[in-house]
Amino acid sequence: MKNDYKDFYIGSRAQARSKKRKSNLILNSLIGIVVLLIVIVGANIFFGSDNDEAASDATNPQNNSENIDGGNTDADEEQGEDTEAPAEEETDSPDNGEPAEEETDPAADPSEEGESDSTVDLPQENETIVENSNDPNVKQTFVNPGWQPIGTQQQGDHTKNFSSDSQDWAEMQQAIAVALNTSTSGLTYWCVENGGGEQVIGTVTTKGSANEPYRVYIEWVNGQGWKPVMVQSLVENDKQNSCG
Q: Which residue ranges have biased composition labelled Acidic residues (predicted)?
């Protein structure tokens, strides 16, 4: 009986040890899996954050160059340009010695609203001033090499037309106004006469308080329209009572 009991006791202990080893193995395996998961999750969190920051820097290059142009803002704000764009409105006046104003085709003058009080700003940019003149009525002579033909709506062969309702007359007025750096509505056209060849001479005065007289020379350029040639500032309006 002792031997049977001893064998049973030894067998029970062996089974207990076997179960304990299995339990330890399972427990160690679970612990290892948990540790591995912790390592994996931590690595993903750490490296994932670095990758997000790198991607953010790559997609937002301004983060690396912030305020590069900041030093120029003050200078830019201090700079400004004052530009003048006088409106132009065509008015017609027949060359009969009496001032008159008539509306013409707005296409000949791009602006539909004129100025009530016009001033002439002379000399203009890139202008050559010739002061000597044999004409006692001429104070100064202005020539601007930057003057260009004003363009034209006329087609075919050109013939001067001084009729107050003609396109040629409207374009003559506009060229004279361009030479004086103003609008047609800012001038009174006392006389626009044939100057010989392709040239026309207009005598005008500015409206408003100044009321200054000018003699303006323009010439026709084929396919391009009337071009200002010369402006003379006059002592007095010598065409107020007669034209021609």
A: 74-118
